[in-house]
Amino acid sequence: MKHIFQILFLALVLTACGSNKTYLERSDENKALFDAVKRLNKDSKDEQALEAVPILYKNLLQDKLAKVKSYQSGTDLGRWDKLLGEYNDLQEMYNAVINSAAAFKLLTPQNFNTELLETRQAAAADYYVQGQAFLARAGRDNAKKAYSYFKKTDRYSAGYKDVQEKIREAYEGAIVDVVINPVQDNSFFSNTGWGNSGLNYSNEYFQRTLVRDLSYENNNSNYAARFYSDWEAQRANVAVDWIVDLRLRNMDLPQPYSNTYRQNRSAQVQTGTDTSGKAVYRTVNATVNVTRMSFTARADMDVLIRDVQTARTISNRNFREDYRWQEERASYSGDSRALTSNDWAMINNNNFYAPRREQVLEELYRQLYPQVLNNIKYAVNW
Fold first, then answer.
1. Which of 45, 91, 185, 201 could form a disulfide with 190 if both were Cys (CB 3.0 to 4.6 A apart)?
2. What is the pLDDT of residue 222?
3. Angle at CA of residue 53, ends 48 and 57, nearest 5°
């Protein structure tokens, strides 16, 4: 305990030493300036703050203007964010001083509002030119870059020239029309005629649900894609860009495995009372005979996304899922009073039936579906 108190005391001492540093001794001059101005707002006669504000402001002004000059000599597009960052800092310094009567008496701060506006306009113009250059080139990747640059233009200067029209044009150029084919079921079920029973997770339903959910996501997200089933694309005469092929394979549904085991039970039960009224107990015993039926089914789904025009593979993934089923029922011999609630649940289990093959496939589809959906979303996402 003494050791803990020593550590706490040392921490308090170190904290106190750090807080007692003068504003000019701090390593973060920017924070020190704002702290000193705040102090003057509370106590306009604070000597340390009065001394520090002019010196800190001068140092920061020189440092940031030097960075501005360096960034202005560059040519990369990334310089605009750096420039605006420095000008924003300089303007915040100006605002802090101009809004403090005590600090304003110590110096005349420099207003950078004009520089901020001019830099935003220059950045917007630069990104607009770059966007135009990429928009003039063919291909989705170029349209995506153009879209990104026009969005930057609009962020720097809202409504710059015809930037909203350019954003829409670039977006349209970046859209891919994606056809999702029905699941090709090469499993045992398809080969035996099963799989066409009209279940919720039939091969066609899986396809239709993907088209529906992806279309909904597209309307509420920032990726450029339109989704169709194969028959929808044919009916609308769509010039398809990408095709998604889905193939179910390695479907394995073993026969349920039966395993029998026994569990012995014992319990103390009251059989009456003695002459003094004290409860009398005796041990009762039972044997529980349990039959467990179980199996583990599994399936793979291949998801191939390819570009129709270039034959390029966009994505090629495999997803595997397992479905585990288990049921237990039981009988007993001996005294029923020794049985537990779990024992009775198994004894009274009247639903001791393995799921149908259709139910197994439905469950596997349900588990595979979100992985397939997210894989397609990732492929079309910017």
1. 185
2. 61
3. 150
Tell me which amino acid residue 335 is: D
Q: What is the pLDDT of residues 135-191, one digit of tens each?
A: 999 888 899 999 999 999 999 999 999 999 999 999 989 899 999 999 987 665 554
